[in-house]
Amino acid sequence: MKTRLIILTFIAFLCSCSNSTEEGLSKLFSTTQKVNTISCFSKHGNDLLNPRLMAVDSVNFYFYESSADSMVLAVNKRNDLKKRFLAKGQGPIDAVSAESMYVANGKVYFYNLTLRKVLCYDEETGVVNVDSSATNFVLNNMISTSLAFDGDMGIYPILNNENRFVIKSQEQEAYFGKIEDTREYSSIEYGWILQPMTDVNPIQKKLFWGSGMGDVYGIYDYSDINNIKEICLQLYEMPVTSEIEKTAYTGDTRIGILSVTSNQDYIFALYSGKLIKSVLRSMSDEDKLELANNILVFDWSGNPIKRIVVNHDLRDIDYDKYEDKLYGIELDGEYSLCQIPLEP
Q1: Which of 81, 101, 187, 264 could join 2 via S-S bond, C-beta 3.0 to 4.6 A?
Q2: What is the DSSP string of 136-180?
Q3: DSSP per residue over 251-287, as a string?
Q4: pLDDT in tens, 298-310
Q5: Strands 304-320 and 32-35
Q6: What percent of the chain is modeled with pLDDT above 70?
């Protein structure tokens, strides 16, 4: 869910700004709502530096800021008290970065891709620890960044396997999500070029994933871990890759889903729809790949419901199930927390 867009493969070439309009998945939605965000400045004052990820639980807002020595800022939702944790370093309970942040089981999970380590913060104790089960798994497997958790089960996108996901409980592992070989790509190549942003519905036992590049999404039902069922798989527009290197995107690739969150009824996907070449003039513009102002709303059968267009670019979104509100990190001169009204 809370996942920074990571391009593990490289971009084959860049070119100057294009006049291409935003299309892609947006054209599937017959209903569009224009919404103005609501600033939540009082929730953090001037303490935010350059937040890249956010999450919310029953007690706090959490902001991941890569430039800080203690990289996570927790802001109490009721009294605005602030606390920093997750030290930057290579010690046992440190990390050099956090590419994924996920709230579940009364904990906040952080995945550091570089150190191949999963840490968790327990709000009740205020302590950061290594999640040994998840860390052992990522140490022994090649996975992407969008981890999700449901109870004692971890759900991981896996890269060096013809299946694209694995659910791991204490008792077993179940691999699923294979896309069959085609003339263009092998099953393993699909895993590399369609690196997913994921979220789960722990009540319905469903997993949503949307590709960070291209216009591709799918839903799986994992209520029976021994018989995981595909509910939908929509390959609307594949990323454009190099003829020489199949896992290298070209500038004609459309940027897809940047972040995903959900409630029991709907999935909210922050979606770009821009071509790489319309965003990047040089690699100094790389941060712009993580910004979008479209939120696509699907139901848990994968049906497009509506498109929400907000008045500021967003870097990340998360749904607060305790207060029935959708929040985001918006760019309005500087980055800050905002609420996105959910109109009927």
Answers
A1: 101
A2: HHHHHS-B-S--EEETTEEEEEBSSSSSSEEEE-SS-EEEE----
A3: TTPBB-EEEEEE-SSEEEEEE---BHHHH-SSGGGGG
A4: 999 999 999 999 9
A5: parallel
A6: 90
Examine the pLDDT at 20 and tell me if it is beyond 50.
Answer: no
d(CA 117, CA 61): 23
Residue 10 or 218, more confident: 218
Amino acid at 146: S
pLDDT of residue 16: 42
Query: Rounded to 5 degrees, what angle do the CA atoms 75, 80, 82 make?
Result: 45
Q: DSSP assignment of 49-116, as one string?
A: ----EEEE-SSEEEEE-TTSSEEEEEEETTT--EEEEEEBSSSTT-BS--SEEEEETTEEEEEETTTT
Close Cβ partners of 132 (under 8 Å, ≥ 6 residues apart): none
As a whole number of angstroms, the distance between CA 44 and CA 61 comes to: 9
For the record, the structure tokens of 119 come out as: 């840490």
- Give the pLDDT mean for 58-73: 94
Q: Mean pLDDT throughout 123-128?
A: 92
Once rounded to an integer, what is the mean pLDDT over residues 85-114? 94
341 in helix, strand or coil?
coil
